[in-house]
Write a structure and sequence with these properties.
single chain, about 150 residues, alpha+beta, seven-stranded antiparallel beta sheet, 4 helices, globular, DUF2867 domain-containing protein
Length: about 150
C-alpha cells in the first residue's frame, strides 16, 4: 500500500481529476490488484449503492454532507457521480461548510482511493480535522478488503 497525505504530496494526476483545485485536505491510497473491475465497481464495492447507516452517520450527520438518499445509477453511497474517465470516477458531495471529492482510479495493476476536501466555512475544517485521523486509519483497510472481495467475485 502506498500513501500520500496533503495536497502537495498527492500525485498531480489525482489532483487534476478533482473538481477542487484549491483543496485544503487531500490523501491518496493505492494498492496492487489483479482484478479487472471498473473504477465504478470498486467504488460501489467500497461504499455501497446507497448510503447505509454508517455512511449516514459519518458523511450525513457528522460532516453534514447532502447525500442522495436512494440508490441510483448516478450516485454511489449518496455521493453524486460527477465525472469519469475510462480508468477513474469522481464522486462529489457538499455541505454548507465543506466540499468533498472521492476519486477511485484503476491503472497499471493498481487501484487507488483519493479523498479531497475544501473547507468552505470553519465548521467544515473542525469536523474534518476531527474525523480525518479515523479516515486515514480506515481507508487502507477498506481499499484492501475491496480488492480481495472483487478478486473473489470476478
Amino acid at each position: 500500500m502506498r500513501t500520500a497525505i496533503g495536497p502537495r504530496n498527492v500525485p498531480s494526476v489525482v489532483l487534476n481529476r478533482s473538481s477542487i483545485p484549491d483543496a485544503d485536505y487531500a490523501d491518496w491510497f493505492t494498492t496492487a490488484t489483479a482484478g479487472t473491475a471498473s473504477p465504478e465497481e470498486y467504488a460501489r464495492s467500497m461504499f455501497g449503492d446507497s448510503p447505509g447507516w454508517q455512511v449516514k452517520l459519518v458523511w450525513g450527520f457528522l460532516l453534514r454532507l447532502r447525500l442522495i438518499r436512494n440508490a441510483s445509477p448516478d450516485s454511489v453511497a449518496g455521493y453524486r457521480i460527477a465525472s469519469r474517465g475510462s480508468r477513474w470516477i469522481r464522486l462529489e458531495a457538499s455541505s454548507r461548510s465543506l466540499t468533498s471529492n472521492l476519486i477511485v482510479a484503476t491503472d497499471g495493476g493498481e487501484v487507488s482511493l483519493a479523498t479531497l476536501m475544501r473547507y468552505d466555512r470553519w465548521p467544515g475544517r473542525v469536523r474534518w480535522s476531527l474525523l480525518s485521523p479515523v479516515h486515514r486509519t480506515a481507508a487502507p483497510g477498506l481499499l484492501a478488503r475491496t480488492v480481495v472481495a472483487l478478486s473473489r467475485s470476478g
